[in-house]
From TrEMBL:
InterPro entries: C1-like_sf (IPR046349), Nucleoredoxin-like (IPR052259), Thioredoxin-like_fold (IPR012336), Thioredoxin-like_sf (IPR036249), Thioredoxin_CS (IPR017937), Thioredoxin_domain (IPR013766), TryX_NRX_thioredoxin_dom (IPR045870)
Name used for this protein in its record: protein-disulfide reductase
PANTHER family recorded: THIOREDOXIN, THIOREDOXIN DOMAIN-CONTAINING PROTEIN
Gene3D superfamilies: Glutaredoxin
Native organism: Rhamnella rubrinervis
Length: 1111
């Protein structure tokens, strides 16, 4: 039954013999007592694992809503017997349809098309079906989702978006009545104490190995930063399900935490789209997200990564580059007194003995099947190279679990090794970003890194790859080009890789060809990219540019998918499916997890593709979970119609992750009927092409890409809007209109989503423009490309539109999103009368210019630029601030001041809000600047333009200001924001005495220069900057300050927090790179190891505000 359909509850939920429900104590409740209430129909069964896990969440929600008195749940059982029903219903505080009334239970399941459980259908007070997605809503939003309507969920989504735009530390960490965090001593610490600080949100789970390993590193960095007096805090966001685990982990941490199982944790996981653990999100002093995850940075650089700013990341990249250039073998392999490697008899070999040799660092382990498969190849290569060159060595770096396994594996190797358990292993893995084994990194005689993908080269070319240098690659490349017979194949391969957006082309990756190898090896190694038969397959991990070759490219499904104790995979109903039954089918290995936002977004797309391909009978998907616990796995797996590796078999799951080098999720590997890897970018293919990408081979994707290219070259309105089964668009009254009727017109493709506020606002403007163009007889039409998930929302929105649309959820909609590389909503793509794209988005042009933007040609946009320029030159204060009868501003007591009284003054338009911490931080500076300017020029005023949420907040904030304001909720605010393209607050626009715009960046100018910048003209700014430059010439390049042990160097920085007075500073500071300690010039020069008087005599400067000026 679709959402919005009306039902008679009494008739729906009763039968001829029954007009009551029952409670778990046997009481009867009349069916008609639910009329006028919001009702949840809960389809569930005691035998169903996901149901058992969802029911307690629903109980909690039900009990929280009991006080409202207008919400009820009715249990519709899927149990097999009455005893199971009674046991299960005893846990439920709500009503149930008696187990004996099988007919009603069956009728309801058919009516609501219940295909799986748990399933919660919400019916509103009027008997309308609000949603059939109640389970997801309760899981995702809990009691906040009440009353579970489309409007409520859209509101919550908009609220989430608004929260991101207006994010503060409080908006992230305060929840309901809880405005505090907890320490591991049990103290409650107000969130407000962290505001203005740099804060790390540490998403972790104490029972998860990588988190256990990472926490000590983070503790060490945190303590060092505290010792240096840095204003940095960490808040633990624990994902532990067990309170004992939480406490055990938290005891080792010197920072704060959200309370165990706090309701905000699930929201934060969704809000930050968590993809991996551990994750450390950095929130800046302004409350904005500075970096979504610095965990890896801290692993690599420790305290040096602080303060995690973009500038710091650039600096680290430079450091890394310098390290690489200065790298030597000893800098890699010597650590303290660990200056040796060992032979298999345990004898020590000094690292100094290896200097000047080409070295391979071989990361491997005995337990790893691909490692054991690769080892004979590496031994042969080693012996072949050593036969002609003794300046070569291999060093084994083990990932074995114990000494005996290490000894056994090492005994079969002819080379050297790091001792088992040596701490250098971890730093080498991190340095070379080793994500899986086997891996081989080649080091040159000078100690520089040659390649981190030497395993692939050895696998393909053996000793011919030696010495792995760029020169050798070029030499072999010349041999390749000497074979004219191969030229076409190479170019084809190169282009195919380019189309796949590989970071390095195939030509660069596969030019290691000797005379004997030339044609045969190029084909065998590379052919999956251009879709020829091969005995070797290539999987490209695009994120780290590593190319992995799997030997013979063929996987015996039994080996990677089974274990010694298991030869089956499972369905979500518990059925077992033998792995042997999958032979001859195409398989998708789906690496995913319930906690991962992108996975949650991709899984429904994959479900749709899977269901469409089910009829073919030759495609299957196997879920390989990255969930933290079995409950999460079961809840997530319940949504999937395919198979899974059991959660309990963590060894197989880990092995598959290593085998396919899974470095991020969602990740989909496609394996052909013969066991060959067809593609490891299945997620990209399915998201982009859907079922049309089947059978997901490189050949098929190339065909589709070629079709796309051809379609763009030969684009017509028909090629864009017509599909195989549809050659029409629809009108809002339901009529079908042939696409051919639009040919020869200028057509706007309007990408919109009704639940998105910006689209709703733009639609009204577009309707106005459309109707005006139609009234003028223009040959213009619009076609809505709806991106709604909900048909009811689409239909309601489409009624207000006078144009056509593609049917909701038409597959062409998704294709067009990819085709036009949609990046924002709303978007209006304009197609010219010839069917070619005239403009990729004219939404902003229509917002600014309305019907004047038509016909959207390049010539028209040039004209609009000229008009805009002329408008700016003719701009007056009244043209900006007067709108109809709104010709005044107000004082804080509410009295009106005519705009005409402000004409001839210099005006600052101050966009701000009380809820915004950066606004509150900036305001004292603006007030001081205001008074300083007024003291010397009374032809000056500031006008506050509020983004507050209510009148009370507006009044409170305005009461602290000495200037004027536009009234709260005044429609001029929106016009001014649009005119000056205000994207964030606080923002200050300077208007000159003539009414012309002087400066749109006055906030930064005031922050740096204060009153000195007045009247904010270009000439004045140049004058001020010259003064500052002149003044800075007298400052020392370096100072030694009594508050800090190291020398401080004069440095440029747009904005910073002074470690002396703890106030914001701008432009220049005295800075210690080693400790990230910085001082305002006024602080640095006030208390150096010279006396203040001595410095004045010597330099002739005094401190004034944020800068020091000539006396």
């Amino acid at each position: 039954m679709a959402s919005g359909v009306t039902t008679d509850l009494s008739q729906l939920l009763s039968s001829e013999k029954r007009d009551f429900f029952i409670r778990n104590n046997g009481d009867r409740v009349k069916v008609n007592s639910l009329v006028g209430k919001i009702v949840g129909l809960y389809f569930s069964g005691s035998w169903c694992g996901p149901c058992r896990r969802f029911t307690p969440k629903l109980v909690q929600l039900y009990e929280e809503l009991t006080s409202k008195g207008n919400f009820e749940v009715v249990f519709i059982s899927s149990d097999k017997d009455e005893e199971s029903f009674k046991d299960y219903v005893s846990e439920m505080p709500w009503l149930a349809i008696p187990f004996t009334d099988l007919e009603t239970r069956k009728r309801l399941k058919e009516l609501f098309k219940v295909r799986g459980i748990p399933n919660l259908v919400i019916i509103d007070e009027n008997g309308h079906v609000s949603t059939e997605q109640g389970t997801r809503i309760v899981m995702e939003y809990g009691v906040d989702g009440y009353p579970f309507t489309v409007e409520r969920i859209n509101f919550l989504k908009e609220e989430e978006e608004a929260a991101k735009q207006n994010q503060t530390l409080s908006s992230i960490l305060v929840y309901g009545s809880r405005d505090y965090l907890v320490s591991n001593y049990g103290n409650q610490v107000p969130v407000s104490e962290l505001e203005g600080k740099l804060v790390g949100l540490y998403f972790s789970q104490n029972s998860y190995g990588p988190c256990l390993e990472y926490t000590p590193t983070l503790v060490e960095v945190y303590k060092k930063l505290k010792e240096k007096g840095q204003d940095f805090e960490i808040v633990l966001i624990s994902l532990d399900d067990n309170e004992e685990n939480f406490k055990e982990g938290f005891e080792t941490m010197p920072w704060l935490a959200l309370p165990f199982k706090d309701k905000s944790i699930d929201k934060l996981v969704r809000y930050f789209e968590l993809q991996t653990l551990p994750t450390l999100v950095i929130i800046g002093p302004d409350g904005k997200t500075m970096n979504p995850n610095v965990a890896e940075l801290i692993e690599e650089h420790g305290i040096v990564a602080y303060p995690f700013t973009p500038e710091k990341l650039v600096e680290l990249a430079e450091i890394e580059k310098a390290k690489l250039e200065a790298q030597t073998l000893e800098s890699l392999l010597v650590y303290g007194d660990k200056d040796f490697v060992i032979g298999k008899n345990g004898s020590k070999v000094p690292v100094s003995d290896l200097v000047g040799k080409t070295i391979l660092l071989y990361f491997s382990a005995h337990w790893c099947p691909p490692c054991r498969s690769f080892l004979p190849k590496l031994i042969k290569t080693y012996n072949d190279i050593n036969a002609t060159n003794n300046a070569f060595e291999v060093v084994f770096i083990s990932s074995d679990h114990d000494q005996s396994a290490f000894n056994e594996f090492f005994s079969g190797m002819p080379w050297l090794a790091l001792p088992f358990g040596d701490e250098r292993k971890k730093s080498l893995q991190r340095r070379f970003k080793v994500q899986g084994i086997p891996a081989v990194t080649a080091i040159s005689p000078s100690g520089r890194t040659l390649t981190t993908t030497a395993r692939m080269l050895i696998d393909a070319y053996g000793a011919d790859a030696y010495p792995f240098t760029e020169e050798h690659l070029k030499h072999l490349e010349e041999k390749v080009f000497a074979h004219g017979k191969m030229l076409v194949n190479i170019i084809g391969l190169h282009n195919a890789c380019k189309k796949r957006n590989f970071k390095e082309s195939a030509l660069a990756q596969f030019t290691l060809l000797s005379d004997q190898l030339v044609f045969e090896k190029l084909i065998s190694v590379c052919w999956p990219v251009i879709a020829l038969t091969s005995s070797v397959t290539m999987a490209v991990a695009e994120d780290n540019n590593v190319v992995e070759i799997t030997e013979s490219g063929t996987h015996d499904l039994r080996s990677p998918l089974s274990s010694t104790e298991r030869d089956f995979v499972i369905r979500n109903n518990g059925d077992r499916v033998e792995i042997d039954s999958l032979k001859g089918k195409k398989l998708g290995l789906y690496f995913s997890a319930s906690w991962c936002g992108p996975c949650q977004g991709f899984t429904p797309i994959l479900v749709e593709v899977y269901n469409e391909l089910a009829s073919k009978g030759d495609f299957e998907v196997i879920f390989v979970s990255a969930d933290i616990d079995e409950e999460s796995f079961s809840g997530y797996f319940f949504k999937m119609p395919w198979l899974a590796v059991p959660f309990s078999d963590s060894d197989t799951r880990d092995r598959l992750n290593e085998l396919f080098k899974v470095t991020g999720i969602p990740y989909l590997v496609i394996i052909g009927e013969n066991g060959k890897v067809l593609s490891d970018i299945g997620v990209q293919i399915v998201a982009e092409y859907g079922v049309e990408g089947y059978p997901f081979t490189a050949e098929k994707i190339k065909e589709l890409k070629d079709q796309e290219e051809a379609a763009k070259r030969d684009q017509s309105l028909r090629s864009l809007l017509v599909s195989h089964s549809r050659d029409f668009v629809v009108s809002s009254d339901g009529n079908k209109v042939p696409v051919s009727e639009l040919e020869g017109k200028t057509v706007g493709l309007y990408f919109s989503c009704s639940s998105y506020k910006s689209c709703a606002e733009f639609t009204a403007k577009l309707v106005q423009v459309y109707e005006k163009l139609k009234a003028n007889g223009e040959r213009f039409d619009t076609v809505l490309i709806p991106l709604d998930d909900d048909e009811e929302s689409f239909e309601q929105d489409f009624k207000s539109m006078p144009w056509f649309a593609l049917p909701v959820k038409d597959k062409t909609c998704e294709k067009l999103v990819w085709y036009f590389e949609l990046s924002t909503l709303p978007t209006l793509v304009v197609i010219g009368p010839d069917g070619k794209t005239l403009h990729t988005n004219v939404a902003e042009a229509i917002e600014e210019h309305g019907a004047l933007a038509y016909p959207f040609t390049p010539e028209r946009f040039q004209e609009l630029l000229e008009i805009e320029k002329a408008e700016e030159e003719a701009q007056t204060l009244e043209s900006i601030l007067v709108l109809g009868d709104l010709d005044y501003v107000i004082r804080k007591d509410g009295t009106k001041v005519p705009v005409s009284e402000l004409v001839g003054k210099n005006i600052l338009l101050y966009f701000s809000a009380h809820w915004c911490p950066p606004c509150r931080a900036f305001q004292p500076k603006l007030i001081k600047t205001y008074h300083d300017i007024e003291a010397k020029d009374d032809a000056f005023e500031v006008i506050f333009i509020s983004s507050d949420h209510d009148q009370a907040s507006f009044d409170e904030f305005l009461s602290s200001m000495p200037w004027l304001a536009i009234p709260f909720g005044d429609e001029r605010k929106k016009t001014l924001q649009k005119k000056f393209k205000v994207q964030g607050i606080p923002a200050v626009i300077a208007i000159g005495s003539s009414g012309r715009t002087v400066n749109r960046e006055a906030r930064d100018i005031i922050a740096v220069h204060g009153v000195a910048a007045y009247p904010f003209t270009e000439e004045q700014l140049k004058h001020v900057e010259q003064q500052v430059e002149e003044m800075a010439k007298g400052w020392p390049e370096k100072v030694k300050h009594v508050s800090h042990e190291h020398e401080l160097v004069l440095t440029r920085c747009k904005a910073y927090n002074c470690d002396g007075c703890n106030e914001m500073g701008y432009d220049r500071l005295f800075y210690c790179k080693e400790c990230y300690f910085g001082l305002h010039p006024k602080c640095a020069l006030n208390n150096t190891e010279e006396t203040k008087d001595e410095r004045k005599v010597k330099q002739g400067y005094v401190c004034d505000g944020d800068v020091c000026r000539k006396a």
